[in-house]
Design a protein that fits this description.
This is Pectate lyase-like protein. The chain is mainly β. Among the domains are: about 70-155 and about 270-360, 3 Solenoid (Pectate Lyase C-like), CATH 2.160.20; about 160-260, no CATH class. Helix content is about 10%, strand content about 40%. The strands form 6 sheets. The protein has a 19-stranded parallel β-sheet that branches. A 10-stranded parallel β-sheet has the order 7-10-22-24-27-30-33-36-38-40. Strands 11, 12, 14, 15, 16, 17 and 19 form a 7-stranded antiparallel β-sheet that branches. A hairpin with a 2-residue loop joins strand 16 and strand 17. The radius of gyration is 24 Å and the shape is globular.
Length: about 500
């Protein structure tokens, strides 16, 4: 074939492929039997106990659906090219921290002009209303020779129960997806109150899910009831008699036989809000691909709510791009990347986007060379959402990692590795059951093991494309599978469909 023929042949192939794509029939659309589309409205189909797949739409900054705010620049910083960069940035943060917040709680943005900033230890943001923003070409370089979080956003204090407000739930069974229930005495509550929905850990529950029977090896710990008290942060919407309505649904059933549940008001003095990290490249120095003593997290957030991370790329860290700790609530992480971890490949490393908090949203995030790229930790209370995220060259699995996460949606996750929701047995110090009400929606994976715990609810694989596998341990109950390897699931994204419906109700 002469050169002219070759040149003509290539476009012909491309045209043929394009024509095939154009005329290829679209996959037949189908709906889950658990959620029906009635026009623009979602209809939830309950099981015999009244459980439904819950509404996940209230996660993220200001309960989702709001555009992230753009704070005006009140301070600019230029790189010095020395270790003094850290001091200059910290001084700017401390200066802005002294500003009086406006009516929205905003103090202002600090703009880091393009260039390289050397950070030999870490940067602290301990006041609300502060944004740390880069521009194209702004890079923070972690030069520490120990494991450290490059940027730490954290308030102070902890959740404290308001004395005299605790009351028992009197319904024998409060199903997953419920927004309301009867309590013994609703008089302490009114609309707008911050409350804890409390579900106790009990010996009977642990026995029924067989987490006092984990096959022991060195270091294995059987589950203890007091360690599994679950505390879900909610807000009262209204009160009718002794019936209390909450803004966010139950994600694990409350059952009298397992101690029922309770409701009480709480305070969290010292928790900060309205902080953002934007448009930054963060890199860690490292001595080798298996280096351990260097930058560990690019960003760590704790004791903070209604915050965001936007368009941050992390490279060469040992643990994460973003690590949301237990005190992080209603945080949105969007358009961010975690590439090319540097560490040995074993436990407690390479958790690209880690979430131990609640009501948090990860959207349009991407990872390479991680282990647990989109992951929740022990006793993580939901709802939480990972949506439209990808992971490549994975070394372990995506999903709830260990010890009972409740209420997580993995929505349109694409990975060349695994998503698993299973009994992890004696891995670690006795991880056991990873969680309940874990919804895997329209994800594409190499393989997946989705199992149901022996008691207390279901896990779902709906529209999953990939191989179904047994998982680590034989004989565990199968999760609820529907439409495996079947294209055309509607709605394509459960999170965005739920969000759209909730926003429509406000109009």
């Amino acid at each position: 074939m002469n050169n002219f023929a070759k040149k003509a042949f290539v476009p012909a192939i491309m045209l043929s492929a394009a024509a095939f794509t154009f005329f290829a029939p679209k996959p037949k659309e189908w709906e889950s039997k658990f959620i029906k589309l009635k026009g623009e409205k979602l209809e939830y189909v309950p099981d015999e106990k009244g459980n439904v797949i819950p509404d996940f739409s209230m996660v993220g900054y200001r309960y989702g659906g709001n555009k992230l705010p753009v704070l005006p620049v009140v301070k600019e910083v230029n790189p010095t090219g020395t270790d003094n960069d850290q001091t200059v940035i910290q001084q700017a943060i401390d200066e802005v921290s002294k500003r009086t917040p406006d009516k929205n709680g905003f103090r202002g943005a600090i703009l880091l002009r393009k260039g390289d900033y050397k950070i030999p230890d870490h940067i602290n943001i301990n006041a609300g209303g502060i944004v740390l923003r880069g521009e194209e070409g702004t890079k923070l370089i972690a030069t520490a020779n120990r494991q450290v979080s490059l940027i730490r956003v954290s308030g102070q204090g902890e959740i404290k129960e308001v004395p005299g407000t605790r009351t028992d739930i009197i319904d024998a069974y409060v199903p997953v997806g419920a927004f309301s229930f009867e309590v013994k005495n609703a008089s302490p509550f009114k609309a707008g109150d911050k409350v804890i929905l409390f579900r106790p850990g009990t010996a009977q529950w642990i026995t029924d899910i067989k987490m006092d029977q984990i096959e022991a090896r060195s270091g294995t710990k059987q589950w203890q009831p007091s360690a599994y008290d679950l505390r879900y942060e909610r807000t009262v919407v209204k009160v009718e008699g002794n019936k209390v309505f909450l803004n966010i649904p139950v994600v694990m059933a409350m059952e009298t036989k397992y101690g029922g549940g309770a409701l009480y008001k709480y305070t969290f003095e010292g928790r900060i809000s309205e902080c953002g990290i934007e448009n930054l490249t963060c890199e860690s120095v490292f001595e080798s691909d298996t280096a351990e003593n260097h930058g560990w997290d690019a960003i760590s957030i704790d004791k903070a709510e209604h915050c965001w991370v936007k368009q941050v790329t992390a490279r060469y860290f040992g643990y994460s791009c973003v690590n949301l700790r237990r005190g992080a609530k209603n945080v949105t992480v969007t358009g961010s990347n975690c590439f090319d971890h540097k560490s040995i490949i074993t436990g407690s490393r390479r958790y690209s986007f880690n979430n131990d908090g609640q009501l948090n949203l990860f959207v349009d995030c991407h990872a390479t060379d991680g282990r647990h790229d989109f992951v929740t930790g022990a006793i993580t209370c939901g709802p939480n959402v990972f949506v439209n995220c990808t992971a490549k060259r994975t070394h372990a699995d995506i999903g709830p990692h260990h010890r009972w996460a409740s209420g997580t949606l993995y929505d349109n996750i694409v990975t060349d590795g695994e998503i698993n929701v299973q009994d992890r047995g004696n891995w670690g110090s006795g991880h056991g059951w990873a969680g309940v009400t874990q919804v895997i929606w329209n994800c594409t994976v190499k393989s997946a093991a989705i199992q149901n715990p022996w008691a207390s609810g279901n896990n779902y694989a709906i529209g999953l494309k990939g191989e179904k596998v047994q998982g680590r341990l034989k004989g565990r109950p199968d999760g609820i599978w529907e439409g495996q390897n079947q294209d055309g699931l509607m709605p394509r994204s459960l999170y965005f469909a739920q969000l759209k419906q909730r926003q429509a109700k406000k109009k």
